[in-house]
Design a protein that fits this description.
By secondary structure, the chain is α+β, with helices and mostly antiparallel strands. It has one domain. It is about 30% helix and about 10% strand. It is built from four helices and two strands, in the order ααββαα. It has a two-stranded antiparallel ribbon with strand order 1-2. The radius of gyration is 16 Å and the shape is extended.
Length: about 80
């Protein structure tokens, strides 16, 4: 999805949880899973992240102005006004 929207390569790494808790993994200086990284920037570590935060990190990596935050949610649309 994001790789179709932006000119970026997305790599997904999935391992059993036990592999993320080894000394060898910590020596790699990678974030604790679940995590999202854009290039060398850790966007989030150990929790979920909003799509906007990932897109903002991609924009920073591509040296583009940050995207506008989108309003979402049914009640926000009804009471916007």
């Amino acid at each position: 999805m994001l790789d179709e929207k932006y000119a970026v390569k997305i790599e997904t790494i999935s391992k059993p949880n036990a592999e993320y808790l080894t000394d060898e993994y910590f020596e790699l200086d990678l974030p604790v899973a679940p995590a999202v990284m854009v290039s060398d920037e850790i966007v989030v570590e150990g929790s979920d992240v909003a799509q906007y935060e990932i897109e903002a990190a991609i924009f920073r990596h591509l040296n583009l102005p940050l995207p506008a935050k989108r309003e979402k949610g049914f009640l926000k649309k009804i009471f916007k006004g």
